[in-house]
Write a structure and sequence with these properties.
Blueprint lengths: L3 H16 L9 E6 L4 E4 L15 E4 L4 E3 L8 H10 L5 E4 L3 H9 L8 H4 L14 H5 L2 H16 L8 E3 L5 E5 L2 H24 L8 H11 L10
Antiparallel strand pairs: 1-2, 1-5, 2-3, 3-4, 5-7, 6-7
């Protein structure tokens, strides 16, 4: 079976989204990329998570052309492949419609970095894209979604690994990581910090974001060459 290990990793990432309560029914998808072969493994479209098997994962090239598989790939494939082409550091992408992160996306709001839980995973606010124009929606909508994410990261000069997620305005979140496990993990944490941010704003609408010093202290204790968190 082509890319057997990556298929298994992508399946596990998809199932983690269900286990963590981030998707309903067949909403959401996860994918992974083999950089050496230039191939992507992604969940098939509309298949119930309970029925998913590694051999049902669809393999495409980085342009979205099916290389292996009898099922149609996720309808979000063009967003995934565009992110792989533009963000060369990432190895997996996850898309959900998780409740709180999607609420921020629907409001057209970024998720502020209010505290250290956020800072442990995201080096600053999680951005939201511009609203897609009617023209963009009427063209290659899924492709344009990816372009909107990339445009926001370019505009803000963000490192995709330092802020491994983006909210698509009026739509929902995308998250990513070096591996399918990392991408799913980041999606779960994204929903948690979105929930906390919502409650923070509910308690105090004028709440300040965490200081730069505290953001640096918590982010860099887990990331970078001088990280001290966990075991070597």
């Amino acid at each position: 079976m082509l890319l057997k290990h990556l298929r298994e990793e992508v399946l596990e990432a998809n199932l983690e989204l269900v286990k963590s309560g981030l998707v309903l029914y067949t909403f959401g998808n996860a994918s992974g990329v083999d950089r050496e072969q230039g191939l992507v493994v992604i969940k098939p479209s509309g298949v119930d998570y309970d029925d998913l098997k590694p051999e049902q994962m669809v393999v495409t090239d980085l342009a979205g052309k099916i290389v292996d598989g009898t099922l149609r790939p996720s309808s979000d494939l063009d967003t995934h492949t565009l992110l792989y082409r533009e963000f060369l550091e990432i190895g997996a992408v996850v898309h959900t419609h998780s409740e709180f992160a999607t609420s921020f996306a629907q409001a057209g709001l970024s998720i502020p970095a209010f505290g250290t839980t956020h800072a442990d995973y995201f080096y600053g606010p999680v951005p939201v894209t511009d609203v897609l124009t009617d023209e963009a929606i009427g063209k290659r909508y899924v492709h344009e979604t990816g372009l909107a994410i990339v445009a926001r990261f370019r505009e803000l000069k963000l490192d995709p690994l330092a802020v491994p997620a983006c909210l698509v305005n009026g739509h929902a979140p995308f998250a990513w990581g070096r591996t399918p496990h990392d991408a799913a993990h980041n999606a779960v944490v994204l929903e948690a910090v979105a929930r906390m941010a919502y409650r923070t704003l509910t308690l105090r609408a004028s709440a300040d974001e965490v200081s730069q010093a505290l953001l640096d202290r918590h982010y860099f204790r887990k990331h970078g060459k001088d990280a001290t968190y966990g075991q070597k």
